[in-house]
Amino acid sequence: MHKHHTFAGLLAGLTAASIWGGMYVVSKVVLEVIPPFSLLTIRLVMGAAVLGVIIYFRSKRSGTFIKISKEAFWSSFLVGFVGYGISLGFQFVGTKLSTASNGSLVTSATPAFVLLFAPFLLDEKNTTRRIIALVVSTLGVLAVIDPRNAELSPSLFWGNMSLLAAALTWALYSVLVRKVSKSLDLLASSAIMLLGGIPSSIAFSVWEINTTGIGEITPGIIGGLIFLGIISTAFAMFLWNYAFAELPAAVASLTFFAQPVVGSLLGWFFLNETITPLFITGGILIGIGILIASRA
After folding, report:
1. Torsion-angle region of residue 60: left (phi > 0), alpha (psi -120 to 50) or beta?
2. Cα–Cα distance between 144 and 279 in angstroms, integer?
3. What is the number of H-type helices and E-type strands within the chain?
4. What pLDDT, in 10s, does the model give residues 112-158?
5. First and final CA of the chain: distance in angstroms?
6. How far is the C-alpha of 71 from the C-alpha of 82, rounded, in Å?
7. Per-residue pLDDT tens over the stretch 56-88
8. In what helix (H) or strand (E) does residue 275 lie, and over which residues does it extend?
9. In this structure, are residues 244 and 98 in contact, taking their beta carbons and an 8 Å threshold?
10. Phi-psi category of 34—alpha, beta or left, where left has phi over 0 and alpha has psi -120 to 50?
11. pTM for the complete prediction?
């Protein structure tokens, strides 16, 4: 791997995961007013629109407009459907039917699933170094989120299964991003992928609004929507796609582990939650795992 590309890819993946790690506080406030699939629809529409505007001005400045074949459009659209239509749908259902700690624990399996898909879909061999990096980072994330908080009661079974399906399909989405980004401009591809999640999210949001309705939209909620639509969706999703376009999937996937670390740090900073020695050990192990993988 070229050093510059490795660093840029790692930085992109870590930044995306860090944004998502800090997104929960904003999401929690906004979700009290706007139900999940309605919020997802707004995020996807805003994200695609922002990337569309960037593509338009970039093309206008350079004088060259991107030509997208029908095949390239639909392959990106379907990849987006897997990531934003199916995976995020499972995540919402799982979070509702299970617990937040279970959500953190189950979705941390995503990099392991990436390791599973990459050899078949990308012909990327799983080296001993990458497997060691995954094991070290996974031990780190287990220390950060502490699996002792997990609940495995039968009443949470379908919630936990939905979370597992979310982790599996997000890993599949991430690997497919690397596959489709080889044949299409990444910015255009990222915008089309966001469009791919809109049909199913609209269908569910219509049902949601009819059953639960929408609360009062205040300036604070609008600010939250702007953050979630532009920063957490347009910017972070593009960075995540960039990481997978630049790096082997097994390496890029480890940056996902920044998410629980940042979430816990923000909880400590804003909500006075405790930082334990186990958390610090976990953060160090995640860093070591990413370092091992990036030297491959």
Report:
1. alpha
2. 4
3. 15, 0
4. 999 889 998 888 888 899 999 999 999 998 888 777 777 778 888 88
5. 8
6. 17
7. 999 888 877 778 889 999 999 999 999 999 998
8. none
9. no
10. beta
11. 0.88
